[in-house]
Amino acid sequence: MNFKCVKKLDKSYDSYVMLTSAVDFKLPDSFDETVEKGFKELMKNEKSTPEKSKKFELNILDGDKVKNFSLIYLGDAEKFDAKNIREAIYSGIKDITGKTLIIPLDEKADNIDAVAEIVENINYTYDKYLTEKKEKFLEAAYFTKKKLPETIEGYELAKISNIVKDLINEQAEVMTPKELAHQAEKLGKKFGFEVEILDEKQAHKLGMDSYLSVARSAHHRPCVIVMRYKGNAKTEYTYGLVGKGLTYDTGGLSLKSSAGMMGMKEDMGGAATMIGAMCSIAAMKLDKNVTCVVAACENSIGPNAYRPGDIVKTMNGKTVEVTNTDAEGRLTLVDALTYIIREEKADEIIDAATLTGAVIAALGENITGLFTNNNEMAQKFIAASENWHEYFWQMPMYDFFKKNLKSEVADLQNTGAKYGGAVNAAKFLEQFVEDKKWIHLDIAGTVFAHTPTSYYKFGPTGEVFRTIYTYIKNNK
Ligand code: BES
Ligand code: MN
Ligand code: ZN
């Protein structure tokens, strides 16, 4: 579906959606008087100023066709925020299908990036395995007299968001580590970044044995996906991105329950997020150097599975007692962190991972847990999120959490303690970031919307990568 801009208002549409930030709005001259009058009448019936995101609707007979007119009052322009504007537009247009013209009535209501994003979000569907495909889409055009930039950032990123959703939606039997690598290669060609795939042997040579022990029992073999974007030849400064790429997480021998296992095909959501960030950075041709590493594998069971009680050696050199094979994400991530620091010379690092159920208990499904060893970096990152519909919350990283990682027989153990699981996991990762600035994003809650929200249908949200992209774009 292509989002279009038009400079002409005509009668060829089934629906017209007007966006206003003012109670005292004016419709374009070419509109029939009855429409403006109708809306004014509806507004007058409101006892006070309408609530933000209020939608007024009129159905008017035009010849033998009923045309639908909606007016969405976005709220007081002084109090606008990027999140509630999006929610207002989303709720106003999510049930409309067919040819629709969207018309901003004033300057403040004119946000083509947000509208394009919302239309792409609404039209996303995953019907690959459905016999009956979705047929009715919102065929939206946007009315604007403005001169448009060559690429509309909001639109480009929304299309990439749908790619991220596709990667996450695919079943684990298809989205194996090798297939994820293949998809990364395809996207690298499309958007313009280099992709190198390391096989098991190469990973073993590098000493990534912590990661390889997680991968050991699976039929689908692991591989490390390295993506490189070089947008600035004048500097060596490299942003490092690391994504958790568990194409399936059974829990291993510390097996998950049936209910707990459902949804574990989404355990590569961090990898998909970071692939989305790479696509965006390349699509928008940022003048930055960015490298992304995904140590992809499946956490399975079998005669060759790693066990609770095993002691694994990380690429960094530290040894880890495996006290729970279901705390596998961190065992793969630490080797990816060491790899990106030592082999790719990353100067600062962001990782994204569906790492803990505990972060969902703490923050719910709409907020990503943010953990860092550098508050300034965290503040910049959170500032970069503000123009998107993405929520982050900085979690504590007090050093006393470290005692939860103590083992009698190894340098560390991987489970942590009964409580504070999201911090224990972050603290574990922190032991491997050396002297680098680092942010860890626990997206276990935000990767997938189980209950529809004010902005997401059931399914992968395809969020978080936009803030990563914006953080890198805005940085020095
Ligand atoms: N992939 C899971 C985390 C997860 C849980 C993501 C629920 C999405 C929804 C992770 O590998 C895991 O199993 N974590 C354990 C850690 C524990 C054993 C210390 C958890 O959160 O229970
Ligand atoms: Mn697990
Ligand atoms: Zn996992």
What's the SSE blueprint?
Elements: E1 4-6, E2 15-20, H1 33-45, E3 54-62, E4 65-73, H2 82-93, E5 98-104, H3 112-123, E6 138-143, H4 153-169, H5 177-191, E7 194-198, H6 200-205, H7 209-215, E8 223-230, E9 238-249, H8 258-261, H9 269-283, E10 289-299, E11 311-313, E12 319-321, H10 329-342, E13 348-353, H11 357-363, E14 368-372, H12 375-385, E15 392-394, E16 412-413, H13 421-430, E17 437-442, E18 448-449, E19 459-460, H14 465-474
Parallel strand pairs: 1-6, 2-4, 2-5, 5-6, 9-10, 9-13, 12-16, 13-17, 14-15
Antiparallel strand pairs: 3-4, 7-8, 8-10, 11-12, 14-17, 18-19
Helix pairs in contact: 2-3, 3-4, 4-9, 5-9, 7-10, 9-14, 12-14
Bound molecules: ligand BES, manganese (II) ion and zinc ion.
Manganese (II) ion is lined by residues 249, 251, 326, 328.
Short account of what is shown:
It contains 14 helices and 19 strands. By secondary structure, it is α/β, with parallel strands linked by helices.
Helix/strand structural class: alpha/beta
Strand order of the largest sheet: 7-8-10-9-13-17-14-15
**Which molecules are bound in this entry?**
ligand BES, manganese (II) ion, zinc ion
Q: Report the C-alpha radius of gyration, rounded.
A: 24 Å
Strand content: 15-25%
At the first level of CATH, the class of the largest domain is Alpha Beta
Question: What does this 3D model show about the protein?
Answer:
The chain has an eight-stranded mixed β-sheet with strand order 7-8-10-9-13-17-14-15, sandwiched between helices. It folds into two domains: 3-148, Leucine Aminopeptidase, subunit E, domain 1 (3-Layer(aba) Sandwich); 155-474, Aminopeptidase. It has 476 residues and is an alpha/beta fold. It is elongated and about 80 Å long. It starts with a strand and ends with a helix. The model has no long low-confidence stretch (mean pLDDT 96). The longest helix is centred in the middle third of the chain and has 17 residues, at 153-169. It has 14 helices and 19 strands. Strand 14, helix 12 (375-385) and strand 15 form a beta-alpha-beta unit. The protein has helices at residues 33-45, 82-93, 112-123, 153-169, 177-191, 200-205, 209-215, 258-261, 269-283, 329-342, 357-363, 375-385, 421-430, 465-474; strands at residues 4-6, 15-20, 54-62, 65-73, 98-104, 138-143, 194-198, 223-230, 238-249, 289-299, 311-313, 319-321, 348-353, 368-372, 392-394, 412-413, 437-442, 448-449, 459-460. Bound molecules: ligand BES, manganese (II) ion (MN) and zinc ion. Zinc ion (ZN) is lined by residues 246, 249, 267, 328-329.
